[in-house]
Batch of 2 targets.
Target 1
Amino acid sequence: MRTFTLTLISLSLCAPSALAEGHDPLWAATGDETPSAALCSGAEDAPRRLCVGGRFTTIAHMHNDSDFDPTPRFFDPNGQTDGQAATFLRSYVRYETGASLHVNYEMEVGWNAWSRHDPGKPDAFLPGDGGGLAYRHRQLFADARLSEQVRVRAGFQEIKDPSGLFLDHLGGALVLEYKDANRTSALWIGQLPDSTYEGVAVSDDNFIHDNVFGGLTYIYNLGAHQKVDFALMGLSDHRAVDRPLTLGALVLGFRHEHPRYQAWAHGVVQAGVWEGSGVAGVDQDIFAWAGQVGVRSRHGKLLWGMNAFALSPDDTHDGNGTIGTFFGAGKNRSATTLLTEDEYRDRYDNFDERMGTPWGPFLNHGAGLAVVDVTVGYRATDCWTTRLVIGDAMNIEAANALDKGHAGLEFSWLNDVAISEDVVAFAHAQLLVPDEGLAVFANDVDRSATELLYGGEIGITARF
Amino acid sequence: MMKRVMACAIFAGLLVGCADGDAPDFTTTWEQTTSRVRTDSVRSETAAGTIVHNRPYLRDAQNRYTHIRGLNVSGSHKAPPSERGNFPLRYPWPEGEDCSQIPLSQACLDAPKIIEYIGSPFPEEDADRWFGEMAALGFNSVRLITNWESIQPHRPESCPDDPRYSQDGDCLDLEYLDYYEGLIEVADRHGIYVLLDMHQDVFSRHLMVYYNEDPKYLTADGEVARPEEGTIEHFILSLFPNPKSEGGAFTDWVRGHGAPRWVVENCLPEKNLDSPNWGMFRALGQLYDEDGTADPVRFGELINLYTKLNPDGDLSYPPWFLYLTGSAPTEGGLTPEDDGVMTPKPFDLTETSDFLPVAPWLINGAASMDVDRCFAALFAGDEVFPNLIVDETGTTRVREDGEDALPDLKAYLQGHYETIWRAVAKRGAKYDNVIGYDVMNEPVGVFLMITMGAIMAQTDGGWLSDEVNPVRLFLDSFVGEALGKNLYDVMKGLNLLPLPEYESLEDGSLEADFQGMLDEWGLAHIDAGAVLGLNTGFDGAYLEPFFARMGVAIEEEDPNAIIWIEPSSSVRTVTGPSAFWDQPLTRPQGPSQIVFAPHWYPDIYPFPGIFSTPREFNPDEWLYRDFKEPLHHYLDHAPNWLGNAPVIFGEFGTYFNFQGDEDNHISSHVLNSYYEAFEALNVGSMLWCFSAENDAEYGEHWNHEDFSIIGPDQKPRGVFSYVRPYARATSGKQIRQSFHSPYHYWDPVEGEHPTHGEYVLEMETAETDAATEIFVPDLQYPDGYYVWLSDGAAYLDAAHQLLLWYPSTRAAGGHHWLKIAPVRDDIEAQGWSYLFQDGMVVTGAGDPSLYGAEVAQ
């Protein structure tokens, strides 16, 4: 309540410049991106300087339920409601030796303030941790510029294919990048961690298994705003003893990136083999795909957009020598906040993750997944932007979800208020009309439960 | 590598689309579900040389640990098809003859002695159905019963001129062996291991005694009266046929199973198995004279016995006694001659066996001298009957000069026993699902009666009264004077002991035909010293060499044979190991692979009555029992005495006809308790029994036993106790498994949910890539089930109700676990890896080890 009151007060005090054109992302601030260093100890051309930056987010959410069935949990002392208040500090330090070498470090400290987010999970905010304050390393790498066009990055860093559907992780990599006016190409080789959350907990070593990836990304600039994306990447994963996974992915895509208009279309096909993993120890060949198309636009005060993505399902015979399930990063560009990842902080409770099966750093959807969303927004004042998101999700192969296809329909009303240039408060109202295709994965008792889920989240995020 | 190249090639050509595939290759896994199983050992090279340690496990061809969850098939084998429905004849009745009366008519006695075991346990055409049923119930193995008589029904020296029987001097029933082999083959198709079991119970079905299930007598006014069950008079009257007015027939018999008639004739050469009185209770032959007049001496002993056993009774003669003696006053025209007791004609001891028609038939193993003599002949014929040989005609007789080449009883009988085993092993060697050879079921190692007989023989009649005779002294020294006297009187009353009939001579002295008595009792050529030795070291001195001989012979025919052995039913069964004089069964030297397969029947034979109804239990006696501790008594034998052989309980089970247990709840509780103990101790077991032919009144058609899991309606009964999840094979050493059926007692704990339906399997690090196979019955999980895994992937072979688990981690000293819980509408299931429901699978958390998660068990 206190945060909400503060948000209301901030509406009257908001800074008109906060969402000025060219300064904000297309629509609104997001909290899950790496902050850029905002404060440096010297000029850009100084021989040595130290830059720091960060993002501070406090967020609280409350939902009536998490599994569409409000009956009290039989033996769960935490009850049925679902909520949490938490504060996160993500900070960034960069030591620059002129333009030739940058050493970067990013970390995050998060605090689980009260309650568990999802009684069905050990601790959704802090998976893998014992609870309490979590300290995670996010990035630690050196960026050496060898020439005007060539640079090398080495260390623990963001690893992402142009679509983000296959690779969008934090991992160890050596990247050789060539960039000129028309193209950006990069050779990658590195290791993906055993699991990727929002970084690696200080006490963890999640590089226990050999999981080597490599590949080539190529981005060709068709014009000032248009880009063609190409990537050919592969990995060799040995986490399953004597049953290595060899996986290749071809990414093709197109992007149009204009300050007032964005569009994207990407397709990913995967092929590979998971040796000895099927029934009777047969090798399982992987043939999988994913695709995503979307558009966002702003015309004056009107905002609109849509996104659709689909991840291929497995066939209906588990272990039969063929895997159709897409090995994905669990990331996408959907604007939904319940069906897919929340834009401020991944809590691992979004339903696309709950519907999936982790496989190392990837997420598999045995039933496949398709999510379509439409957004309509309006900049009501200079500092207040309101949006309505309607999204729908379905299982592509219903037989892998107890013959339940439709997953659910989400309505989210998202409000962002810029308090100052670097501070945004937000208040979101969320409603989910679940269907049995979602209850199959989310309800631990009644897999046909479809009662409404509603709630909201409020918070504040500040960049520095 | 080739796979990867191909994958890359496919990848290059693939732009969009998804692939579908066929069902998984469950055929291969199913074909591998049975394979030649072996016992395990480890070799250590040391400065002292190579040391070999046996491991107490069975391993299959995929190097998995094999776990036996078996059935004995079948109880009804003991009543062969050629005997069924032909009571009281052991062979088919001659056409047009009524053979219901005993003594049997000459026409009945002359009936062709057709012995047919084909069709037992079930006709070959039904084998698919029944093995399929067993597999559907989850049993992965059977102890397939056969017996000596099935394979060698006729004396080799007088083999029928019939191509059915081998004409090579062994006279083996080739058609039966084909049938038996066919069963092994069908079992293999259903994923069932087969243990070939040479069964016997108290030696032979030709050792037998008739009795009356519904004893009755006529009162003075001609009314039919029935004694109360459990009373002494009920016991005594059960030994007599029905009154003449009621048909004058016996209604049932108690008998053994195993050896053919010709073997019994060798063991008991003085006996006349062709006597019309064969099977009559022995004492009946001395109760009446030719014209039916009761013998006052014998009946005097009988009433004395009754008085001793019923000390609080009325001192006047009871009406049933007057009926039996024919001295009941008659009214209304009734006469003893027309309507009274069917008085048996006098017959000699040699015309019947000394079996007692007691419901716990096993008592005959201790109380029948005939049984004692047969086992003594088989195991120690050379020592106990050193002067007896078997001649070229197959006749047992005293050795004469120049007959050193003729075999003694042991050599003759064991030689033929070896022959039948070789014949069976030749067949078994062809099939990978043959898990072993059970050399002899429940050998009897109690030689109490023959010992007393031998003592009698040794004294040469040098005693004159009951008080000073050596048996009486023997009993007194063992159990005390008072009880010794009572026991002596009972034995005497039942004519169980050779007691000479003394006659007073004119000079006042007493005389008895002592040698004649010994001949009549078959004790004329007995060596008392050897008999005494049987009692103190049977298992070590006689049974173990027997197992070794048979095991070596079997192994010669089937080099992969595993020899299953069990201790004898002996004093040690009751007393347990004794540090002072014990000579237990130790590991037979010769056979390479040994399994110890004791039997375990706690509490099922409580009352030594005749046709005593099964025990009436208070359910509380069973509901909370924990059998782990008593089982340790058996489990300790293997490492202590048998070189750490694997232990698998070859038999256990319970009645299904407990009084008042129409829903089989007591039986189910009993079996559930047994299985919980077996599971906790990681020990295999074979349930007694499966019988396709179960009768509501006669059970498995043998001695009123009613243990079959198949009821009279030919449907499984008590299923929730034994149709339970278990690991058929594990890729790692099993640490424990448990299943809580609906019969498991759950003591509520605040904050914890009931564990009914939960199955947990733990094992050490997987040693092979082959699947851990877990039978998960639809019966226990009608709404589907969740699976939690420590690691790996699980796939469901729904057709065989098999969950195939492939662990994914291989850390040394690792620990894998798997949990199954039913889908329920009152308990949340969280963090599961898989949900199986209605033939579909939902993948939840999948393999936790793939993303570094540690999931609480």
Target 2
Amino acid sequence: MKLYCLSGHPTLPCNVLRFKSTTIMLDCGLDITASLYFLPLPLVHSPRLSKLPGWVSKDGAVNLEKELKECSGRVFVDSQPEFCLPERELLDLSTIDVILISNYHCMMALPYITEHTGFTGTVYATEPTLQIGRLLMEELVAFMERVPKAHTATCWKNKDIQRLLPAPLKDAVDVCSWRRCYSMQEVNSALSKVQLVGYSQKVELFGAVQVSPLSSGYSLGSSNWIIQSHYEKVSYVSGSSLLTTHPQPMDQSSLKNSDVLILTGLTQIPTANPDGMLGEFCSNLSMTIRAGGNVLVPCYSSGVIYDLLECLYQFMDSANLGNTPFYFISPVANSSLEFSQIFAEWLCQNKQSKVYLPEPPFPHAELIQTNKLKHYPSIHGDFSSEFRQPCVVFTGHPSLRFGDVVHFMELWGKSSLNTIIFTEPDFSYLEALAPYQPLAMKCVYCPIDTRLNFHQVSKLLKEIQPLHVVCPEPYTQPPPAQPHRTDLMLELQHPPMAYRRCSVLGLPFRRRYERIHLLPELAKSLVLSEMKTGVSVATVSAVLHSKDNKHVLQVREFQNKPRPHASCHGTA
Amino acid sequence: MDSECLSFLPRICVALADPRQSPPDDTSLEKLLDWFKDLPNQRNVNGEGLLQQQPCLLEFISSVCKCKDTDHAILSFTLKLTGLLAATEQGFSLLEEEGLLACAFKRGGWCAPDLWHEPSVRSGWLQGLLHTLNHRKALEFVRENGLIKVLLHLQNDPSLFVSSLANEVLVNILNFMTSSKMSNSSDAVGSAQCPLGPDWVSVSSEIIRAGVEALGSKKHPQVIQGLKLLSLVLSQCGEPIRSMLWKDVLVPLEVLINGGSGLLTLPLMTVLQAAVRTPLLSQSDCKVKELMEAMLGAGNGKDCFQCAALIVTLEKCPEELKRKAINIILLPLRCLSTQLQDIEKELEIVVKKQLSQKSSCISLLLQSLSGITELAHTKYPFEDIPQVTCSVMLLLRICSGHRPSFSLPSIVSTQLIGCCKVQRCGLDTLDALSVYNENLDLRHEVFGVLLEYLQNPDSHATVLKKALQAAVRWVGVCSPFPDLLQFISRDLFPALEKRTCDLRWEVRDSTLEFITQMTAALRGNTGYAEVLHTSSMFSILLSSLADVEGYVRASAVGAVGEAVTSLVQQTELLPEEVLTQMMAILSQDTEGFPRRAVVKAFTSWLKGTHPLPALDQSLSAVLSLGGNDLDWEVKIHTLELADVLMERTLTYCPYATQISSSPDETRLTQALRKLKDLGLLDLLLNSLFDCDRPVCEKACSLLLKLRTLAVDIDRSDVVLDVCGNRWGDEVGSRYLNKPQAERSLCVINGAKESCEKMDSDLLSIREISLPDVVRLLDLDSMQRTLILSRDHVVNSPRSLMEDILLSVQQTEENIVDCY
């Protein structure tokens, strides 16, 4: 059994498990942090960004004026943002039989895997994962296609040139494998390969292994996966949460007795308690609105935004800010808000029971009804005429490199009355803000990451007791900035197996048994000798027939004839 | 004693003695016993007198003791009652003559001996015996009937209540033998004039011997009981018993201390604590100090810390010993800050080991912090106070995730990060350390730590509260330093602003309370007042007046009130917006707390040294709204406001001088008219007839105050409208009921009339003068009635007895119903 690690990113995993002649890809996360090296894509012409000076090396030897621009004391690539893909050279992607998706954030690289690689397999995901994943992909494509760039910068990626560039560009790794965003056609083609599964549904893969998704409690339809044969069990834990938020609670008991547990997707901000951050979010929002400023929340169009809206639904009235409008701007805003209300069976019990009243599970329906929350596909159109301040705007993309958020940064960045509150933990807020400096608006970092923290995961592992744990390397050591925080790493009795990008791990267990069926007539012919109470043995003489990973012992044709001695051709 | 109550007693006795009836609840029986206890004080009725007046009591005791089916609760009650009745020699004799004492207290005296297994019965027996131990006869009864042995046996009773009560009785016996009550007798133990009687010597020796044997016992519970007896004797008995016992227990005590059993640390320390408070401390042969030092050095580290923690709390303690204990108390903190130089190696290892263990790390640090807090409360001169403070701050920083500059066992930081217990305790210690002037140089660091806690989004609400409490204290002591204002405006206010918007109402509430306290602590500091009003804080306070939580609104009212006081000292202006919002809360808020707070704010403004002209316009409305409020506490606060207003108006008359300059009107009349115009007189009279007694009582006391001034003024000077006021009907009806008294007082339709008026004319009263109304009301009698009515019905013995009878009757009815 082998594990090929195509991504080293702990929360955007992409691993391939070879198990019993099946090749299973576990998630295909797309690392969008590479876009932070690029200049923002403004929706409306920005005089500031359009007049940036091009970069020429000090000695004039390297001139990349067209590709690189100096902005706020740093150099950025002036091209359509690119993303870091999972490793594609480590193994032949056309050999992958199935891809198991655990949540909609971990499928963003799917078109890069399924298209143009010879992939012929099947993708398994739950319905909300597919639908919301589609929305996120559509949104990403829309953000890119709304602001097309005529030229694509490629020269700077030349290794000889890159090493002469200023930091952080010169330190960027694997830049040659970075790719532009996929097209909508590729998205549709990739998603057409998805087969829907429900929680605890068992899917047979070639008769060799059975895979089954379990609720992971992180987001709508998010799953952990059990991959098991008759005698072996591998659990794949990715992006799980034990907090009481909107999704169905995590199924922990089914993870028990695993031979191997692959653990990914723990919280990225282990020192930030989500409750405390939610409190900070509300306090800062309230202070800004009371002072007459606007609040900008760069966020994904699904996920934590549902919880934020629910929290604000209660908070705004209690803080006497009930008249403050919320705007949710995204090409998929409407679909996201509507989808969240229709996936009742994927929600926590409390929200499910509302459906039978009947009431919408999320209170944002009421916010929309009372005109407190308005959603728009873009800043163009109705929004510009209905917009009033002070207000709270939720919009993407959290990297601040593309999407409507770029416009608000340009619009509100100059006033100290306004505040930008970062809630998504995927991007360094300082890096995200770099091309907007100097910035007068207040910046608040309230990352809300509901995924398991180290304390919770230690308890979980004690409870489910896997024989071996495999995890990304960063989980086996304290955060580099806080080397004394040994509580922020996995400390297990048996040290976990750590992996990094391009690792190939031989998982430490040998398969010792295989199940073989006896046909009834063969069973009838066996002569049992009792060795001790409850244990009998017999000599079997039969033909072993193997097909589709199923093994059957069949009677030999001459077996009906009497023979002086039976010989053993197969052992059950 | 109420004769009515006496008449209930026979029925009560019959009801309680009847085994077929369920006993009333324990509380009723305890209350009845309390009533019996109070009899000698209330009516000078002693046990004998009561027994003679109420022979039913003798019958009751007899029948309960002789009944085979008696309930254990009733038997326990009876034993306690018998003891109470035998508390005097006469009562004792009477009971003895009837054979009831032997029946109650001699083993085998009852017909239901199995009930001895009930702890409540054993406890009742002991309490009864304890009550009797007031005279020599009782002591003889105990000795002659061999009850000392029973008591010594009960000392090891499995019930903790029984065993500690047995100890108490034994100590009482020892104490009684040395008391003045025995001094007339030749038997007083150790009496100089009278040698020790052999009977008494045997009693005291028996008890002391038992105590010594208990200390030497191998059974842990017996040792504990022995130590408890010893500490009781030391704290309650005089000489020579104390010295006699100490001499005998010294050796076993030394053995126990040197044995170092962790389980005995606490009881051993209690013994030593008791010994320290006696003259034994100064007697070198008594070795109290040596034993204390041995305690510090004995056993494992945990006991040593426990012992040190107890030593530092001792008031009288040899200084050398205290220093030693303090060094031990400080050790865990010094260990965390790597300041280990002159620490004994062995102890250092123990501390490090305990700090690295999950189970002991937190408790060790908590003990250390609490010890420092205790010492700081007494302003104990530590050797290096700033260093102690720095250690506490370092611990607080580690708790919030900071990395110390040296390596710390990972388990320590893992345990401490985010540990609310240590954070709370550490902040308490930091608060207490503010008393030392030596720490003032550390104020920047202290404020830095406090600010970190206030800013940390993960700070628990209780931790934040502690941080705010500590901040108030430090702001208070640092008020003379000019850099404080910079800290407040630049760092503290932004942190507080965020906290006033916190999701948790407790945090918003604590923050607003903190702002109130800080503003009060810095009253008179013009720089602070300027910072408060020029920053956005004041507008945030105003917006908090509309908080969704009533408690928070109340705290916001308090904070705005205090802020306005500081503002007024500078500008003498009351912001219009404040008045509008305050009046809106008083008239519209659905919860009582904010409305009470508004009236209190007005009272505080009125009490202030700077008069507020703007206030004058609102007072009338406040008095009217507050007086008509549905919440009785709002009404009380309104009357307190009225009290202050009266005080100011009648003493200084600042308003009277403004309203009239007529030379023939006295200042008093002007002041009273002013009060009338403000509606204060109507408020007092209406409140006098309020449905809530405390309101009536307060109004009555204020009217009595007013009467002393108002009786002398001319009737026509201050005339009140009777019509349209709630009090008018009451006064009218009282007037009609007492025609003779009032005929000479009334003013009818504004003109003085002769007193020959018919009742029909009296009905047409429209106005009445202030002097007349205060005389007419018979305020003295009203006040007496109101004071008497306090808890009168609820706690009367009669109602208790009625309850007991009723509960018995109800049980009967219920039984019938069940069938």
